[in-house]
Specification:
By secondary structure, the protein is an all-alpha fold. The chain has a domain of 35 residues.
Length: 82
């Protein structure tokens, strides 16, 4: 295993890690969260399962960037450059 050169590595108990993950994503949890975040991951299914198992509410999260580009607000806006 190569050393991590961009920060300090910490070894945490599962309970502490779970708490830190919930704090990290606190403003981005739940269906009504209005704070978008882009999380780039490898193995999306496994990552989402892990976050849910750690107590992070991902129920309002969407896969892909479509919802950020075209939010479902019930209104359609058309911008024309004439």
């Amino acid at each position: 295993m190569k050393p991590f050169n961009y920060g300090v590595t910490e070894e945490l108990a599962q309970a502490e890690l779970s708490q830190r993950l919930r704090e990290l994503f606190a403003d981005h949890q739940g269906i009504k969260s209005e704070n978008p975040i882009i999380l780039l991951v490898s193995k999306e299914k496994e990552t989402m399962n892990y976050l849910r198992n750690m107590g992070v509410d991902t129920s309002g999260w969407r896969s892909g960037i479509k919802d950020l580009i075209m939010p479902d607000t019930g209104k359609v806006s058309l911008f024309l450059d004439l």
